[in-house]
Design brief:
The chain is built from no helices and six strands. It is mainly β and 91 residues long.
Length: 91
């Protein structure tokens, strides 16, 4: 199955939380920060008022409490409005 977002919505796959600090300390799941960096899985068509600025395959930073979590085929995704995406990560 595949998620196809409607309107100005974007389907994100959250990147894994850091399990170790830079100095090598292993973090418990409670101590790990919730990442706000995600991979764009699918992008809706936009609306007459909203032009879509993100594309599938990009890495983005999104608002921490944004969106709705959904599970599909054992995978967890977050569906957000494009306005909840704060930046595109360029490498």
């Amino acid at each position: 199955m595949k998620l196809e977002p409607l309107g100005e919505r974007v389907v994100l796959k959250q990147l894994a939380a850091e399990e170790k600090t830079k100095s090598g300390i292993i973090l418990t799941s409670e101590a790990q920060e919730k990442p706000t960096e995600a991979f764009v899985v699918a992008v809706g068509p936009g609306t007459d008022d909203v032009k879509m600025e993100v594309e599938e395959g990009q890495t983005v930073i999104y608002s921490q409490y944004a969106g709705s979590k959904v599970k599909l085929d054992g995978e967890e995704y977050i569906i957000v409005k494009q306005s909840d995406i704060l930046a595109i990560v360029k490498k």
